[in-house]
Structures are given as structure tokens and as C-alpha cells.
Amino acid sequence: MKVSGIKAVVTGGAGFIGSHLVDRLLALGNKVLVIDDLRGGSEDFIRHNYKNKDFKFVKEDLLNYKGLETLIKGYDVVYHLAANPDVKAGASNTTIDLEQNVLVTHRVLEAMRLAGVPNIVFTSTSTVYGEAKEIPTPEDYGPNIPISMYAASKIGAEGLICAYCHTFGMKAVIYRFANCVGSRSTHGVTFDFVNKLRKDPKTLQILGDGKQKKSYFHVSDCIDAMIFGAEHQKQTVEVFNVGSEDYIDVTTLAKVVVDVMGLKGVKLEYTGGTKSGAGWVGDVKVMMLGIEALKALGWKPKYTSAESIKLTAESLVKGK
Predict the structure, then answer these.
(1) Domains of the chain (ranges, CATH numbers)
(2) How far is CA 57 from the centre of its chain?
């Protein structure tokens, strides 16, 4: 797949990862169309591109927008990042993941088919593997048994993408992300900890038992991997795990954030969470992805989980 000198659509391009991807795509000499309803994104993340002649922003709800196929006609690829990003939300709202992750993906794919757009790059998630017994977890692990509505919706979206590619001659790269962190992040444990400590610098409540171990990777590594994997696509549908090569427990993560904020004597309190000690129903307690497929092609992350958390906490403290 070509990654420079083309016309690219980025759904969810005003979001955390999407806005960083937009910056990179523009730097590579692409014409970029961002489609975002701004429910999870922010114009502040893309405003610096408004005067760029190669940039265009359309504020629309993908689920209900009737002119999508006309809008994207003539483009070469859709980077499809638009989704509900909150894993916890599905426990209280059982339709949000179906609508925002599955039905929106179908809407995008159908518009691509009608408009003749041949390529899609999709951001999926490590949660599709469920509570994997193999750590690090490779791309061919199975069966995938999701434990959250979010994970189930991403599996559904992946299935639709594969079916469209094999039925209609399209091509896809699917990325299953560990926990991506960095500047412009608007949710996640680091974001939550920084905001909790701003409100109460003496006590930090931690969901679960604090022993949850997960892989975190920096958004700069994320964008590098997305561009690299697309550029090295060989199969009709490629599936790549993306993450760091280690994991970190939540208590250690909390201490990194506390240190970055320069706080002393912070009391860590644990909610206990579910019976397994996970933070909430649907939370995968231990996660680290095998990234050998991308490494075999020549990509590897620059930062460890702890380094990624430190960089993220620093950017959030600075208000970036």
C-alpha cells in the first residue's frame, strides 16, 4: 500500500491517535480528509492544520451521514479510526459499541465499495483475544473469546472488513493495539490518574487490586507502526499486533505518575474490582501482545511501557 503522495481519509481524525496520524500523513505529502463528529475528538488537535491546502475537515456523524460515498470518491485509502474508545461504557450502554464500532464500520465499507476506494486501514484492539492464556499473545491465537461489548464489536468490525475485502477486491491492514498512550490522550489510566491527583494530591484510588499487568506503547510508536505496516502489506488482509515488548502493573504505573507530578506521600487505595482483581467487568487483567510479525519486517517500538507512561504523564501535566 502506498503511504505517501496519495489521497487519504481519516475517520476519527480529530481524536487522540487520529490527529497524530493526520500530522504524519500530511508530513508524508498526502492530501488528507478528516471526518469526525467531535464527540470524542477535539478541533484543538487538528486546528494547526487548517491553513494547509492539503487538509480538509468535515464534521459529520458517520452513522447517519448520507453523502459519505460522494465525499470519499477519488480517495485511495480510508484510515478508519472512528469508534467508541471507552471499553467500560458497554457495561451500561449495550448499543454504543454496536452502533459506533460495528454499524459505522459497515457504513464506511459500503461507502468505499460504492465510491471505488480500494484500501482500508483499521485500528482494532488487544481485547479481541479476551483473557488469553498465551502471553505474549500472537496474532494467530485463538479461539478469541471477548469479555466486553467493546471487544465483541471490534471482532465484528474485523469480520466485516475481511468479508468486504475478499468479496469486493479491497485490501486491508488491521492493527490490534495494546494500550496506546501519549499527548492529546483523553481517556485511559494515565489520564485518569493525573486528573485524580490534580483533584486530590494526597490519595489516589486505583480500580482493581493494582496487580493488573498490561503493555503500554507511545503514540509516536503507534503512528510509526501504522505507516510501516501499511507500506509493507503483502496479503489481501494483514493483521498486526502493535505494542511495547513488556508490561507494567497498575501500582507501578501509578508510582510513575506520582513521581512525574512531583508528589510525596500519596496514599494508594484499591477498590478490589472484580473477583479476579480486574478493574471492572470486561477488563482484561493481564495483556501483552506478541509483535513478532511487525518486527520480522523491520519495525520495533522505541519505548518501554514505563517510558511511555512517563512521557504521557509529562505531556498531560503540561496540558498537551
Answers:
(1) 7-180+216-242 (3.40.50.720), 186-214+246-286+303-317 (3.90.25.10)
(2) 20
pTM over 0.85? The answer is yes
Q: How far apart are CA 288 and CA 244, in angstroms?
A: 8
What would the grid cell of residue 113 be?
A: 465499495
Q: What is the pLDDT of residues 90-137, one digit of tens each?
A: 999 999 999 999 999 999 999 999 999 999 999 999 999 999 999 999
d(CA 105, CA 20): 21
Q: Could you give the CA distance from residue 49 to residue 42 in angstroms, rounded to a whole number?
A: 13
150 part of the active site: yes
* 3-state SS record for 142-182: CCCCCCCHHHHHHHHHHHHHHHHHHHHCCEEEEEEECEEEC
pLDDT at residue 10 in the model: 98
Enter the C-alpha cell of residue 170: 479491497
Instruction: Give the strand pairing for 55-58 and 31-35.
Output: parallel
Rg (CA), the chain: 19
E strand map for 219-309: 237-242, 248-249, 267-270, 286-287
Residues 237-269 have pLDDT tens digits of 999 999 999 999 999 999 999 999 999 999 999
Q: For all residues of the chain together, what is the average pLDDT?
A: 97
C-alpha–C-alpha distance, residues 14 and 19, integer Å: 5
- From first CA to last CA, the distance across the chain in angstroms is 32
- The three three-digit cell numbers of residue 167, written as one number: 468479496
Q: Are 243 and 213 in contact (CB under 8 A)?
A: no
Catalytic residue among 150, 164, 216, 247: 150
